[in-house]
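Researcher: Please predict.
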Amino acid sequence: MTSSMILVTGGTGYIGSHACVALAQAGHELLILDNLCNSRADVVDRLEILCGTRPEFIVGDVRDAAALDKLFACYPISAVMHFAGLKAVGDSIEMPLEYYDANVNGTLQLLAAMRRAQVKTFVFSSSATVYGHPASVPVREDSPRSATNPYGRSKLIIEEILDDIHRAEPDWRIARLRYFNPVGADESGLIGEDPQGIPNNLMPFVAQVAVGTRELLNVWGNDYSTPDGTGVRDYIHVVDLAEGHVAALDYLTRKGGLLTVNLGTGKGYSVLDMVKTFEQACGHVIPYKIASRRAGDVAQCWADPSLANELLGWKANRTLKQMCSDAWRWHQGGQTHCRIQSDQ
């Protein structure tokens, strides 16, 4: 593959940093833009170790049109991977304006700058939240879309914007990658997820209980129509997810068009599956208690990833055991590692 410079927005965040490693391994030069609202600049030091060379890094915001124009004028950018944004569902309900500004307005400003610079290859970090409450599983790309919170709605709005852009200007090459539940960390333990405050997602909460930061895990409901009564989700290793982005970029380079695919494993794991597997990774019991169901939670949701396999030649290969082992390695070193926040 021909080397090219990829602009990675939100590249010091959780998923963005792992994508940077995968891009570097594929031979791409990196330019990271991040406003550091949910990450730290010293992540770049760790990326230098993992990538073998230090990525270019600019502190800046995707909503700053002048800064974007300067980047596109100064660097030979051939494509953009867009991870910058806010992602906590609960926060989005309390702060909808901030979410629409960061996610929708930020993406609009970025796309406008790309068009001014005539850079029209764009890989977008979307989400399975665009499916709302799926009527059936596994979830396919042609399943009905809806949104149940401002975060999910911001992703859905951006997806529609990208559809409109491609219809109006077919020379755009766009990938909409719908993530399911990214977990785990790079096997080196140098980069990983460590959200501020109370985690919104299961694995970081389990990990914090495992290291003693939190007393116990609340399991929200054990009376669902699932094998053990707890909710079932499609957890995907963040490195598999990152490799999916590289495969999508390669596809756009070769084929062009508007690509929309699920990135998941196609398997569902329950809350208690996660707890038991993490116990094996950390070597001790993780205390939990059963609590009432949370409003809006669905019993089960997992992807049909066959389209990504067919079009991209990509498949998630890492097991739940690997996800838990890599996450535990990261959290064990949390006192000495830089703390990377969730960005998607």
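Model: The two ends are 27 Å apart (CA to CA).
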